[in-house]
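PT: before anyone asks, these are the final sequences, not the draft ones from last week. 637 residues across everything. Please model them as a single complex and drop the result in this thread when it's through.
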Amino acid sequence: MAQDRFQAPDYYLLDELLTDEHKLIRDTVRAWVKKEVSPIIEEACQKCEFPKHLVKGLAEIGAFGPYIPVEYGGGGLDQISYGLIMQELERGDSGLRSTASVQSSLVMYPIYTYGSEEQRKKYLPKLASGEWLGCFGLTEPDHGSNPNGMVTNIKDKGDHYVLNGAKMWISNAPFAQIAVVWAKDEEGVIRGLIVERGMKGFTTPETHGKWSLRASATGELVFDNVQVPKENLLPNVKGLKGPLGCLNSARFGISWGAIGAAMDCYDSALRYSKERKQFGRPIGGFQLQQKKLAEMITEITKAQLLTWRLGVLKNENRATPAQISMAKRNNVNMALEIAREARQIHGGMGITGEYPIMRHMMNLESVITYEGTHDIHLLITGMDVTGENAFS
Amino acid sequence: MKILVCISNVPDTTTKINFSADNKDLVTAGIQYIINPYDEIALTRALELTEASGGTVTVLNVGDPSTDPTIRKALAIGATDAVRINAAPRDAYFVAKQIASHAATGNYDLILTGRESIDYNGSQVAAMVGELLNIPSVSICKSLTVDGTNATLEREIEGGKEVITAPLPLVVSATEGMAEPRIPNMRGIMSARTKPLNVIEPVAVPQLTAIAGYDKPQSRSQVNLVDADKVDDLVNLLHTKAKVI
Ligand SMILES: Cc1cc2nc3c(=O)[nH]c(=O)nc-3n(C[C@H](O)[C@H](O)[C@H](O)COP(=O)(O)OP(=O)(O)OC[C@H]3O[C@@H](n4cnc5c(N)ncnc54)[C@H](O)[C@@H]3O)c2cc1C
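LR: through. Structure below.
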């Protein structure tokens, strides 16, 4: 990729709504992405390789568990800080942000929120430091949008559980040391367990051939009579609200992350439109290109405001799952549309790895599907405003 | 070792500069401020030195409260504590006097600055501080090592490099090559919250200079393109319009 000349748009001077510490955190991650991620990410995606060497740096900049209390190795930061970190990481690449989202919201969050004190002490510091990576197993081959239908199950064998089943599309699976796995007990109640690599009967085959999130490893989790010690059950949650609580936190981060990808596409398109000349003038001087750019910055600004407000509500513990759904749905779709328009502004160059656009666009095709599809989030808003369930 | 690093708060390198209608002030709205990049090099070298052989790094800024975020960033990068001399930095002499008056009581072994600030590019402060404190001062150094009570410095000069030794205490201004600036980490940002930032009032300094006004560079004039096969037109233009032949 050509040199990273990113400059973040802030059309409504929203920086004034952030604290000095928010800005320091954001600018730190931004500088780190420019220095460590931009120079290597294009090649990593082309080769479909997870840039493992970045894990330590991700931990150092606080991308793993920023809002987890300091005593467990987290950053003890607020939700807006978490959002800003996700925004800047996804400005670099959605795959990298996915790794951080999974680690923070889908692995550390459930262990912190639903785990015992021993579990918190055993796992959280190692996850925060990046010594261990975790993954989150909810989706199954036959149960995606409808996780309640899951068939993965545990049987109580006195001093341990026996786990059977399979999970699919699991980010970080191929190299994760632990997996937070959701399975039904003998009464059909969804429970969470921490499954560790090395447990007999537990394998994590990698999913190949992805055109999206190529810098993030995805795989399956296969459980063939895995004996899981009882102390690995998350004691403090039962039912679908367990995984949904995690998704709430991750979706919040994604709604910020998507803005990062959109900003990068917009910034690149704006610069290109000023530098690229056709018919004797910069293409940015033509109305058709201006329409695209003007609509992009309008949508980015709206998304920034939406997300900032959501962050304030989340800090006050008042953000509802439906509000988070609205932000995830709106922002990811906004980013994807901006990526598509930005790609056209770049003309033929837009399909190459010289510019980040095509990579963002392909990545966002996953982001619009995982953590609740675009359709499912619409149904959540629909149900919230009408009181009618249109899912089934 | 006790090191003082003087940092200034400057507009980000990508800032578009605009002046007020009377051309007397910089328009600061919307400007992002950063630690002067050369000062960041000095700060990083100071941290490397104290990490290797112990000591403290104090950062000092002459500025009003709006510079606190820049100071916090220096603390996040690793400085031990900070001093802000509560005054707008009027000119180089004013700033040097403030630094010298603080440093005179601080018992510092080394006082580091950047080679110049990237906003006003004066390059005067380091030498003035040395003079005011009556200690040696070496400008624009690309390398600094300390051995006991002596420092060795390298400077780039026309056609080669100059190696200088000088006893501590000493003032050094840093340029590229002395150290590679660091990105703060989360631990650093968190610990910066509670590190001391002492605000002290300025000493009185006579005003020696005043800014009469600013001007932007003149925009480049229009280029006339003449077709390669129309040499007569070119000669005509050079004669009648440019009046050079
Ligand atoms: C790269 C990647 C990484 C992922 N990482 C993880 C992970 O770490 N952990 C994890 O557990 N999962 C992960 N997932 C899985 C992801 O969450 C699921 O793909 C997603 O929930 C959708 O499920 P599905 O693919 O089975 O699609 P389906 O549920 O089969 O949906 C197919 C289509 O039908 C639509 N649809 C479904 N139900 C309805 C309805 N009631 N009304 C209207 N339309 C409907 C959907 O919107 C979609 O358009 C990942 C996916 C990808 C692509």
